[in-house]
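Database export, one record per block. Field names are fixed; values are copied verbatim from the stored entry.
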Amino acid sequence: MGFVFRSRANAEKAPADKARVTDSQPRDPQAPKGRPTPKRSEAQSQRRSVANTQMTRKEAGKRQRDERRVQMERQRQALASGDERYLPARDKGPVRRFARDFVDSRLSIAEFFLPMAVVILVLSMVRVGALQNVALLLWLVVIVLIVLDSITTGFRLRKQLAARFPDHSRKGAVAYALMRTLQMRRLRLPKPQVKRGEQL
């Protein structure tokens, strides 16, 4: 009789012990507590959403590249036409526009620097002492003329800017104009919008 009672007690005690053993076992790290393991269909839908997100990033990058390409094309056209809306930041504004027009409306010695430099270089390469002396003399004359012309141009432009744009920032405008004088007229960007000798 006592044996029967002990076996029943052991039978009732066994499930409880199994439950305690189950609770003490480590939890699967891939199945967080309180969150069931996702079904296969749910996992596939999550993977599709990630793939769609990556495609969206690719599309966003492609869109940015297209916008940058369009902007560069607009700037190129603006440099050819002088359209203020799409010019680069260094060329925008009424001060910079007047500086360009001031340079383009007059003949500058500096714009012939490159062709004269080529001629002087050719003369200096000839194995004739007299021609080499002439080339050296021409080189010195060209440098002096360019310096004098640049000083005169800078002084006149600074005076005009101070009179016409007293309330605008004129920083860097004179240097911007002098750098433009070193370029041949047909190669200048933005393209000249005034003729030589035109009154401003």
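Remark 1: Residues 107-187 form one domain.
Remark 2: The chain has six helices and no strands.
End of record.
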